[in-house]
TrEMBL record:
Keyword annotations from UniProtKB, A to Z: Cell projection, Cilium, Coiled coil, Cytoplasm, Cytoskeleton, Flagellum, Repeat
Residues forming coiled coils: 545-572
InterPro entries given in the database record: DM10_dom (IPR006602), EF-hand-dom_pair (IPR011992), EFHC1/EFHC2/EFHB (IPR040193)
Record function comment: Microtubule inner protein (MIP) part of the dynein-decorated doublet microtubules (DMTs) in cilia axoneme, which is required for motile cilia beating.
Domain of life: Eukaryota
Protein name: EF-hand domain-containing family member C2
Recorded name of the encoding gene: EFHC2
Gene3D superfamilies the record matches: 2.30.29.170, EF-hand (1.10.238.10)
Length: 746
């Protein structure tokens, strides 16, 4: 038999040792690296002696080993033998020897052996791997040789390091393998029983108390109802006792082991310590507290001692008392004892079950068929709220600061609405400031013509008033009222309640506002204010187009008259009228039902869109101004380039080419200004007459009057509205759309 392919075993035992070195190299077989011998011819082309004497047979069973190396053919194939060992136990009365069982594993790939001892409960000895895996040499005098598969058989003794193991059986694979190798197997034997283990087993059998057998298995209930809990909302009314009150509780019933847990719902500022549990999880007796029991009085089983006299063959054991004499019966709450309206005894406290959750209702409906789950009010009626009265305002500081001194011993500053301030503060083009054009409503001749700009800041509800400066008026303009909150008129100064201030919802065109004794009439508003109020029409009803149209529909009897008046005002049949005419007609027909603000909202909704196309003269004047500053005069060169590109001599070129030419020639005009000028010279075919364009831009040949700068007032303020006098909200109104939406008239 050939030895396994190990270092130093590169020879054939059936031929003899080779007297020369056989060259080898690493190769791969079935994705496994291995040593491969090379057959190199000798001198003259003849094979060497070792190459001629290759074996023609294999010692391994047919179909298993073949001609491949042994460790490849028998990879992961192990022979398993059952053996035992008689281990002497000196100086012990109970036993003289001990039978220890082992498993012997023989690895066919490299002839290594491993011995394991199965673990035995409460053996008191280290068990597991008895001999680690390695090649084991034969006992003396053959210690220079190792164990092979031919040394193993059933009912034979084998010696490992001086210990004699008796093999009495093996598994099916091992038997089939040995038969294929031609080994005659002995009949399997029996492992003798350990006398000490036999005595110990008999002793434990006598000590078993479960006779007669009593079933106490709770695993089924645990597996079926684990993590399923019934929840009840309870009330413990302890108001009858001294300093007692009503306590809200939550009862949890665990279906897995029939235990109960109670938690207390502690309201805020109740003065009670927050305890985790009102009752720890346990079984709850129905009649408690039951008192103090003696040790051993409360038990699940009663065990009786078995006495068989003083004979030599006396039996020592125990017996379970099936009659349960002297047992103390305790009744515990079950799931069928809990329902809405029931009163349970929680260690002397009467707890009323008032309600339960949806899972609990489904459980009782499914198992017990209960349909009535009418809850009971468990919350106590709220105590009468005592109105807190504050002393009146003293006049020192603001009302809010005086009120804070009455709330706590340590006065704290008044907290403003910071979130509102951040959301409504000015940023970018959004000012969040409502500006109104107003005048004084007075009978004094000197103040009749005075005009003001009232600004309302949405971030903190403050108002500032600015009077524009008018030359030779005899009145010093400027800041009329610094930014502050304005109280509503008619309020008592020294009172306990906080004063009311003017809100943004009270401001609209046509309203009269009393600011510290001065009565202002709001005449108009800027475009941002009108847009803001129309976007928030739920807070500003005067800007709601739906409410305005509803008021007009109530005047349906005057629809024909309204149509005739508007038709008469439109003499040129343009289907539109100017704003002043439209306002006079609407105000005269509605007879005061619509305010000025509502008329402006109506006019803005039905206004005719204005032509936003810039004026040609303004564009040319701006272009000449930029060209003069940069001293640009290359218009003849630009015209020559265009003439060269104009192959058809039509004096027109595409607008894209003209734009590209201007940009490449570095014409000092901005993109927006250049695009506006080119659009003015563009025809329907998107072509431009280049001679006309560059002739117009030539500021030396065709100068235009310079733009006049707007005249500014000498004194300016951020609150000043530069658009005075107030412009009209819309120039023309499409009355035809209005008649269709309101009366359905054509």
């Amino acid at each position: 038999m050939a030895l396994p392919l190990l270092p130093g075993n590169n020879f054939n035992r059936n031929v003899g040792k080779e007297k020369f070195h056989k060259s080898q190299h690493w190769g791969f077989c079935n994705n496994v690296s291995m040593l491969v011998s090379e057959d190199k011819p000798g001198i003259g082309g003849e094979l060497l002696f070792g190459q001629k004497m290759k074996p023609k047979y294999s010692a391994f069973p047919k179909g298993i080993g073949s001609d491949a190396p042994s460790w490849v053919a028998f990879d992961k194939q192990v022979l398993s033998f059952d053996a035992y060992l008689e281990d002497e136990v000196p100086d012990k009365i109970q036993e003289n020897y001990r039978i220890r069982r082992y498993k012997i594993y023989f690895y066919l790939e490299d002839d290594t052996i491993q011995v394991n001892e199965p673990e035995l409960k409460n053996s008191g000895m280290p068990q597991g791997t008895f001999i680690r895996r390695h090649r084991i040499s034969l006992p003396p005098p053959d210690e220079d040789q190792f164990y092979t598969v031919h040394h193993f058989n059933i009912n034979t003794d084998i010696i490992f390091y001086g210990r004699t193991f008796k093999i009495y059986d093996c598994d099916t694979f091992t038997k089939n393998f040995l038969r294929k190798m031609g080994v005659k197997l002995n009949s399997p034997g029996q492992c003798p029983e350990d006398p000490y283990m036999k005595l110990r087993r008999e002793t434990l059998d006598c000590m078993d108390p479960l006779r007669p057998y009593e079933s106490s298995d709770t695993l089924k209930q645990f597996l079926e109802y684990d993590r399923k809990v019934l929840r009840f909302f309870c009330l413990w009314d302890d108001s009858a006792s001294l300093f007692g009150d009503r306590r809200e509780l939550i009862l949890h019933y665990f279906l897995s082991d029939d235990t109960i847990e109670v938690k207390e719902v502690i309201p805020h500022n109740s003065g009670r310590d927050a305890m985790s549990l009102f009752l720890q999880r346990r079984k709850l007796p129905k009649y408690g507290p039951p008192g103090v029991y003696q040790p051993g009085q409360i038990t699940d089983r009663t065990v009786l001692n078995v006495y068989s006299g003083l004979g030599e063959n006396r039996v020592k054991g125990y017996l379970l008392d099936k009659y349960k004499l002297g047992k103390v019966d305790q009744e515990f709450y079950k799931d069928d004892d809990l329902f809405i309206g029931a009163t349970i005894n929680v260690w002397g406290r009467k707890v009323l079950l008032c309600d339960c959750d949806e899972f609990t209702k489904t459980y009782y409906k499914t198992k017990y068929g209960i349909e009535n789950f009418t809850s009971i009010l468990c919350k106590a009626p709220p105590p009468p709220k005592i109105e807190r009265k504050f002393p009146p305002y003293t006049g020192f500081g603001s009302e809010e600061d005086s009120l804070r001194s009455c709330i706590g011993l340590r006065p704290t500053p008044h907290q403003k609405n910071f979130r509102k301030f951040v959301e409504k503060d000015s940023y970018g083009n959004i000012s969040n400031i409502l500006r109104f054009f107003a005048k004084l409503f007075t009978h004094k001749c000197a103040d009749v013509d005075r005009l003001f700009v009232i600004s309302y800041f949405l971030s903190d509800d403050t108002i500032s008033i600015f009077e524009p400066i008018e030359s030779n008026s005899g009145i010093t303009g400027g800041k009329f009222l610094k930014r502050t909150r304005v109280k509503k008129p008619g309020q008592e100064v020294f009172k306990s309640e906080l004063s009311e201030y003017i809100k943004a919802e009270e401001l609209y065109i046509g309203a009269k506002v009393n600011v510290n004794g001065y009565l202002f009439l709001l005449l108009n508003a800027d475009k941002y204010t009108l847009n803001f109020m129309e976007a928030n029409s739920d807070k500003f009803p005067m800007s709601s187009i739906e409410l305005i149209l509803q008021k007009l529909k109530e005047e349906e009897s005057k629809s024909r008259e309204l149509k005739q008046v508007l038709r008469a005002a439109d003499s040129k049949l343009t289907k539109m009228v100017d704003y002043n005419t439209f306002r006079d007609i609407i105000m005269s027909l509605t007879v005061g039902k619509l305010t000025d603000h509502e008329v402006i909202t109506l006019a803005r909704h039905y206004q005719v869109p204005e032509d936003t196309k810039p004026d040609m003269n303004v564009l040319i004047a701006r272009a000449h101004e930029q060209l003069k500053k940069n001293a640009f005069e290359n218009f003849e060169r630009l015209n020559a380039i265009c003439v060269y590109q104009d192959r058809e001599k039509k004096k027109v070129l595409p607008s894209k080419y003209i734009r590209r030419l201007c940009k490449s020639s570095r014409l000092p005009l901005t993109d927006d200004l250049l695009a506006s000028i080119l659009s003015q010279f563009e025809d329907s075919k998107e072509q431009i007459n280049y001679e006309s364009l560059f002739c117009t831009l030539n500021w030396r040949m065709n100068p235009v009057p310079e733009l006049e700068a707007p005249s500014y007032l000498k004194e300016r303020c951020e609150d000043e509205w530069l658009g005075m006098p107030s412009p009209i909200p819309a120039k023309y109104i499409n009355y035809l759309r209005l008649l269709k939406d309101v009366f359905g008239l054509e």
